[in-house]
Amino acid sequence: MIQTLRRSWPGVPWVAPTVVLLLALSIYPLVFSVKVSLTGPAGFSLANYARLVQDRLFLQALAQTLLYTAVALAIEFVLGLALALLIDSLGRGRALFRAGLLAPMLLPPVVVAVIWRLIYNPQFGVLNGTLRSLSINTSALTWTSGEGGALASVILVDVWEWTPFLFLLLSAGLQALPYEPLEAARMDGASSWQVFRDVVLPLLKPVMTLAILLRTMDLMRIFDQIFILTQGGPGFATETVSLYIYRTAFRFFNFGYAAAMSFLGLGLTIVFAKSLMRVMRVSK
Amino acid sequence: MRAYKCIIGAVLLSGCGKELPTLTIAINAGVEGDALKAAAYEWGARNRMRVDIVELPYANLFEKELLDLTSHTGAYDIIMMDDPWFPRMVENSQLAVIEKQPDTDFLASCLDVCRAPYRTGAFYALPYVGNSQLFFYRKDLFDKHGIAAPATWNDVLAAAKKIGPAEKMYGYVMRAAPGNAVITDFMPLFWVFGAEMFDSQGHAAVATPEAAECVRFMLELGKYSPPGYTGFNADEVSGHLLQSTAVMSINWPAWIAAMDDPARSKIVGKIAFAQMPSARRKGVAELGSWLLGIPAGSKNKQRAAEFLFWATAPAQMKQAALRGNPPTRRSAFLDPELRARFRAFPAQLASLETARPRPRTPLWNEIENAFGIRISQANSGSITPEEALQRANQEIEAIVQRAK
Questions:
Q1: ipTM of the complex, rounded to two decimals
Q2: Chain B touched by A42 (CB under 8 Å)
Q3: How far is the alpha carbon of A226 from chain B, nearest alpha carbon, in Å?
Q4: Residue B292: what are its φ and ψ, rounded to 5°?
Q5: Which of A170, A206, B95, B242 could form a disulfide with A84 if both were Cys (CB 3.0 to 4.6 A apart)?
Q6: What are the two backbone dihedrals, phi and then psi, of residue B98, each rounded to the nearest 5 degrees?
Q7: pLDDT, mean of residues A216-230
Q8: In the structure, what pLDDT confidence band is assigned to residue B2 with cuts at 50, 70 and 90?
Q9: Between chains, do B366 and A251 touch, taking CB under 8 Å as contact?
């Protein structure tokens, strides 16, 4: 039997360990969490999924997560692209600038959050301290403590830390662009803007898609920075889906509902990824 | 002679190979856990037991312990619990019964929270750290302005209005970050204004005129608090006191040592510790004791029980107090040596004797979270006190109903 198997599928012994590991560490937990999300006190139940649409706090957390993702991604993408173009156009010192720009991304997110928590402190923080030294009244500048500005303050931290990631990807994409189409466009008399719009951007599309996709998946599950900076507050102003899932699972020990929320998040990410691929027509 | 040496060597080697019995203790990473850790190692050395300490931050401690209890893994022989966690942890016989009755030297408020049902049932834990809130205020400034120690919340507000602007300080500072932080500082107000979390049938009852008056009063106090107080936790509150930028606050005994530490504090000897102010009802502090229990899944229950009684006996309780832990025994609070060393002990004892625990429900974490979000929103002005209480009431009731 084993001999026959070996003759028929000679690769089986080589891939079997990986398949077993994948089944044990990924597939089984995934299937098990589906089961947990579909289990109520009296057996099979869709109650956890039904609760999702009635839970005002979850819906608010979801809306805030989407807003956070959209705003942070837009700013990071534009800044990352602008920096990549700027650094790419430099004749000398490119490596130095590139290394310097990457520094925030190399710090652990928890460390970044703790540093920014100190920076944002309305009384003792360096931000308001600097503004006060410039004779600016900071009494209304509460940053992460004010309901109005908390989400924006948290987004600013994300932009500071993760713009370099987009810069890195887009910069690598720019350097890998073929020289000939750019040269041909210039020879045909295209302006810099036309070269950028009609040649660079279309050629950069696969890299841009990858960058947006990776960053969106990261942003949709933002947790550590907000957990340290605001714990979802003030009130509920910066609560995100990941934070809400964490609380539901590990503070309230309601794993079924937490799993249902996770699957909704996963579904939204897949839908977004598919839509993005379609819009960017990467597969073609 | 040579054979004799070989035999001795073999015996010694076999002794080395034999593993000592192990006691595994999950503790909170912090001053409360430090004293227990030192005691556990001492006990291990005396009893030829290996002691493994699993030290975890507050938030992780709860989830690790509850996972161990619900799965009966037997990973821990003793767990350290914050008292609001106890009703959740004692459910479904997850904790072992403490067969031997604790003596009456323990303070009743600390012992009551170790029983299931509360106050009347069997013991499932012993109290190790006697934490209850105190009212911290700047005695030097009160004396300077000729104001007596605040006895009521109206006194607190009046003092905040008078001393704050005169001294270019914030009259009051409070924890108002969502969840546990805001509720911790809110409950002593909530109770003395005559409000309760549940009615006699166990239904949510936070949307009452008394509760609304209490939230409005909290907002009034907020006017004399530092900007951004709606995001404050214990660190920020204590930071304002230590830096001499705020006059009064509710706080926990763990911060007393910092107030009198010249390396950290600008107010050494200037702060006094009092009972919670009163309003409609007599002032009451929130209890936050740390308990020691034995998971039902432990394989060393007998040894664990021996350690529990040893660690909470008067002699060890005094040692723990000297290491910085507020005791749970009356005799420790009355000990002359400890009284001479810890000036807040009389106030701490008085506070503990009357302290009130958070509602004894296994759903407290979830209820506190829902209530905390709405009270925090009221503090930040995004919803009115009435709206906050209405929404909180609906959400708390939904939590209660879901669990039925």
A1: 0.82
A2: no
A3: 12
A4: -120, 125
A5: A170
A6: -90, 110
A7: 93
A8: low
A9: yes
